[in-house]
Design a protein that fits this description.
Blueprint lengths: L1 E6 L6 H15 L3 E9 L6 H9 L3 E7 L4 H15 L3 E5 L1 H6 L1 H6 L4 E5 L7 H14 L4 E4 L2 H9 L7 E3 L13 H8 L6 E6 L8 H8 L6 E6 L5 H11 L5 E5 L13 E4 L8 H9 L3 E4 L4 H4 L6 E3 L4 H13 L3 H14 L2 H21 L1
Amino acid sequence: MRIAQILAPGPFGGLEQVVAQLSVGLTRRGHEVLALVVIEDGQGALPSLIDDLSSGGVRVELVRTPHRSYLQERRLAGRLLEEARPGVAHMHGYHADVLLRSVAQGLGIPTLGTAHGFTGGGRKNRLFEWLQRRSHARMDVSVAVSGPVAERLVAAGVARARIRVIRNAWAAPGAFLAREEARNRLGIDPSSRVVGWVGRMTPEKGPDVAVEALALTREDITLSFVGAGRMESGLRERARELGIGSRIRWHGVVPEAWRYFRAFDAWCLSSHTEGTPISLLEAMAAGVPVIATRVGGVPDVVAPAEAFLVPPADPGALATAMNDATGMDQAARVTAAGRRLESEFGIEPWLDAYEKVYRELMSSKADR
């Protein structure tokens, strides 16, 4: 099959990893994959994503335009799609869903979009997500990464018959760093007791809840933030106010952050909303005890026997989980989580599911 994957990526995140693994996996299976990567002038070449795609044999085309030059972007994307003539165009993220879905459909190309999750947030972001859900109602097929995301789409008017639930999958594209090496590279004391937090420092991810929780834990626990975002300066100030500034490490954006997970004694997801978080699958694969809020698709991925599940926006419950996860042997939970990952979130069944949807769309077009 000839498949176009279309996205406007950020510097890092789960969506980008999903697209990379999907594109490379499909290429490995003999399909012809074109990745249309939308970026603005001055944004840079996004080397990690581009390198991952290119090294996996994926054809990459940059749709590079000035800021908010949406008509130019649509024309350029249209030319590339018209030249490639893919059998299906697969959208990822609200930018592609809203701006480029109609370009593909105007060329007679069947479309599907994967709804990776909805974050809410401020008025501007809520407007974008409202537009995104309306666009999904016009897709030939809409893929939801969890049951709760599917219900949000139904509530927004997407016909249930057009929705497929395909939970994310993940497999390490290489080797995890050993604990000692990962700690050395991150500058973490070999003997310290560390809870890791990996992601964007934005409100929906709840990094502020993790900071508040740390202040309620034992004093020998430290928190390692891997990532960046607009909340970082406020988080640093709040940590100083709470007197825990010396107990937090700020590592910034770390390329291939998944490789460093074994540096942590436990890993924490403090989100208010999620789809099926890739970072959760990464922690399970690394064999790190998981602490996660019971939101979105998280309970579909791990059960209480496999992770510490806590309510969102509850620093006290999160602190108790941090104390418990780092204060006792978690081998049974880690083993159970690893078995769950292998049996339910493997790459090959995931690729099978997407191939089935692509074939359905192409067959439907041929019938028409």
